[in-house]
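INFO  loader      accepted 1 record
INFO  loader      residues=171
INFO  predictor   begin
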Amino acid sequence: MPKADEPVLGTPFDLAPPQESEEPPVADRIRRLVEGERYGVLCTQGGGQPYGSMVAFACTVDLCTLVFATPIATRKFRLLSECDRVALLIDNRARVPYELTRIEAVTVTGHAVRPEARGEHERWAALLIGRHPHLRTFVEAPTSALFRVDAVRYLHVSRFQEVRQWIPTPS
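INFO  predictor   done
INFO  writer      dumping tokens
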């Protein structure tokens, strides 16, 4: 079981949609959004200051783990090395720029871990390169590092105000 990142939000955030709703379950909506978007904003922290960075990411089928690469000589790498608590924001606003009620976003909270063991590093690199083949040289460069995010929870926002929580479970 992943480490907790914050208290569970409680039943108002976990309620299923009303029976008359034709919307798919929140897990399906999250999956569609995560699989449909290739980039997100990684949120880190350091010295009491939050930071946001664009990352190309890939995700496991069960949505329990995400992976991204970063250059070692960056603030992002330093902050990730100092504090493993992260959030990754993924949204579809570019797809529906003039339809605010159709914008969806998900914030994945979790813990970033650098997979350094040889076999583990290759596994995560293959997942990331499989989704972003154009990043192969960057991902395999000795000046880059991979980070795996062990997801603790997903917070899905739709219609600008409807927030639902989903906690992934390994398959």
